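[Help] Beginner question about ligand-bound structures

Sorry if this is basic. My supervisor gave me a protein sequence and a SMILES string for thiamine diphosphate and asked me to "get the holo structure". I don't really know what that means in practice or what format the answer should be in. Inputs are pasted below exactly as I got them.
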Amino acid sequence: MTDNSSVARVPGIDPQELQEWIESFDAVLKEEGTEAATLLLDRLRARAQTLGIGPAFTANTPYVNTIPADKQGVFPGDQEIERRIKSLIRWNALAMVVRANRVDHSIGGHISTYASAATLFEVGFNHFFRGRTEEFEGDTVYFQGHASPGVYARAFLEGRLSAKQLENFRRELRPDGGLSSYPHPWLMPDFWEYPTVSMGLSPLMAIYQARFNRYLEDRSIKPKTNAKVWAFLGDGETDEPESLGAITLASRENLDNLIFVVNCNLQRLDGPVRGNGKIVQELEAVFRGAGWNVIKVLWGSDWDPLFDRDVDGLLVRRLGEMVDGEFQKLVVETGAYVRQQVFGTDPRLLKMVENIPDEALRTLRQGGHDPRKVYAAYRAAVDHTGSPTVILARTIKGYGLGESGEGRNITHQQKKLNEEELREFRSRFGIPINDDQLADTPFYRPPEESREIQYLRARRRDLGGYVPTRKARSKPLVADHDALFREFLTGSEGREVSTTMAFVGMLRQMLRDPEIGKLVVPIVPDEARTFGMESLFRQVGIYSSRGQLYEPVDVHTLLYYKEAKDGQILEEGITEAGSMTSFIAAGSAYATHGINTIPFFIYYSMFGLQRISDFIWAAADMRCRGFLLGGTAGRTTLAGEGLQHQDGNSHVLALPIPTLWAYDPAFAYEIAVIIQDGIRRMYKDGENIFYYITVMNEAYAMPPMPPGPEIRDGILKGMYKYRASENKESKLRAQIFGSGAILREALKAQEILQEKYGVAADVWSVTSYKALYIDGIHTERWNLLHPAEKPRVPYVSQCLSDAPGVLVAATDYLKALPNLVSKWLPRRLAALGTDGFGRSDGREALRNFFEVDSRFITLATLYELLQDGKIDAAAVKKAIQDLGIDAEKANPLLV
Ligand SMILES: Cc1ncc(C[n+]2csc(CCOP(=O)(O)OP(=O)(O)O)c2C)c(N)n1
Ligand SMILES: [Mg+2]
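Answer (accepted):
No worries, everyone starts somewhere. Holo just means with the ligand present. The predicted complex, written as structure tokens, is below.
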């Protein structure tokens, strides 16, 4: 219907003429349909642009629901019974937190996040989230982490969790088990699939998961399906840079399998998300600008008649003016206040609500609490094609907690309710709990045969089973892959290669293998050329959902930049975080899809554990498998790049991640042994571990693997004797530990010591201080707990038990690394490492600066011999001179 009143007010246009224009447009819409009307608008806009009239860009639509009431369709569920189920879940979620905090008031937990998200979740559970079955892979759902009590409470009604388990919420260490605070697959491997509690991780993980699903389809590794990836986020959470950082990837890739639901309760932990602005409008602009389909769910059904009456658009304008701080205030205020604040600005608005009592005004619902509005939005999102969808749903934080919490700034932290507050909650949601039981706050589950339980079960049955459910679905690999790695065990016959090149050679071999070739997922953040991987562009192609729409500039070369729809390399561009989430998707595909994809994510080492460690932590929680490769590694091995690039940190940063095996190999055969064994452990034996391997760009001849069965074992356990001294006579003895590129400095020192100082030194390759350390503390712990039994001996002690002489270690990482194992050594350890900021210079200068070169190793060995009284100080002093060491040089840690 045409709105004459607004026509009359447009300045400078003849109302009659405008009326005719509008009528013509209406006629096109009526007779030719929406598509034609849209086309007409597009043409007019283009015409205006050619005439120099650029219509003002607006990223926002008015502050109303995107789906008007007359387009929302029918709600297919039984609204009444769904409301009852939801109320029971609300109660149990609340009871879980309240009870846990009665036992221990420090145990924490959150009530108000789920209170705001309940309808958003429940509509999904009853109508959308599909379980994983034999026939269908199922949907992937990232639940807002702090809303976990609601997911547990539902699983309790579903009969999947017991009252005892609920009782032990946040008390996982109880003898009979408990429930983890937040979604943690490590702690509840049959239940949670995706850890979401570190804000900002799940939106990024969801985007790359959705894209990875497409990748698997385009490469014919899994069948095409219409499975969806849902991510439920907080509105405050969107301030994390990771949350919005990759949204253009999702639209660029047309990820219509991806749906974000932002729970816009306008609050975060401390207070309003945007007190002086509007978070919904801000997010709308950002997502629309990025090409997403945006659906706003702001107002519940009881607003519909008001908007119907709002022919002048006054109400819409008024709502558009108000800031979030004001909206939040409405929640805690009276109906009279709402009348005055929202409608009191214009007599016409006041008239609109004159027949609505205060109480009804106060309880006008938000869109995100109205199942019909939420259903319509989800339906539209699921049916939408061509781009991802974000649903911006307005809710109330602490919904239902009444005066004690609803909309209050303190609500996020609230964990306790007094009896009066419990009574109100109980009555408001109609929970069949008597007054005299309130103090106990018992859980409530209706009998199995009740309509509620039957309905809930039937809905889940129709949707393919319970969500979330986690299960490792893949079948173990069978082959041992000896042949793939054999050539790397025999050395490079004098050819100088870097360990990076050696690794790329192995990757190429693996890609050709009939069993694992297809499963390998090389991931690289715009650094393939740095690592000499460009030959793989041509061999297996770079994945692009569009193939290659252009002729690449280097098409005439052998190794041209080949993009292909079935390309295998994930060339992610400059995003270590995005690449890591691809790694997570590929590294967990054995559970998500039942497919053993083997990710190899190679990156500039300094920008890994240092930059994206929280994602790596989440990968561990998710039981991810695969290989992280820190390229251009080492503080002194990466020449020229300086302070921000030279990495002497990562092997220390790898220590805390329990399932991460970290190796700093020096030679190609060491890498071959580690990767081959890693594939066996992860994909054959099903261990939930992953690997961090540093690879360097310093080229040298790769030696063959020394003979003897203990070598392979030692490489994996963390150390082995690489070259023993040939001088058996000398009284001056030493054991030198080298790692990675610094192993060669140790070998040089071995020669200097022998030739110049008559010291016979054995050189060990320490491939993993972390492995030695873990073995040491594990053994020590066992001994502590078994005092009467024969003590076990840490591997590092076994290695050194008969080794004579002083002990010196040199690494391209912090001195802390070798010092980790010093307590299990038979004698003092002198540790050389690279503590301090890097510098841009060549390797030789850097190794002098950080005091890790062969001269310093020699000096440290002589000094230790002095400590043992084997040589005198004058000899060491002279050595300093002979070696050309500046004794007064600055300490690299301090400059
Ligand atoms: C990276 C990170 N920083 C801080 C926190 C602590 N934290 C937990 S919930 C929360 C507020 C969440 O607000 P919002 O995203 O709006 O969710 P709501 O509870 O309002 O639904 C904060 C700061 C966290 N979990 N993760
Ligand atoms: Mg919030």
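A couple of things worth pointing out: The CA atoms of residues 330 and 338 lie 6 Å apart. Residues 234-236, 265, 267-268, 273, 397 surround magnesium ion (ligand 2) (CB under 6 Å). Feel free to follow up in the thread.
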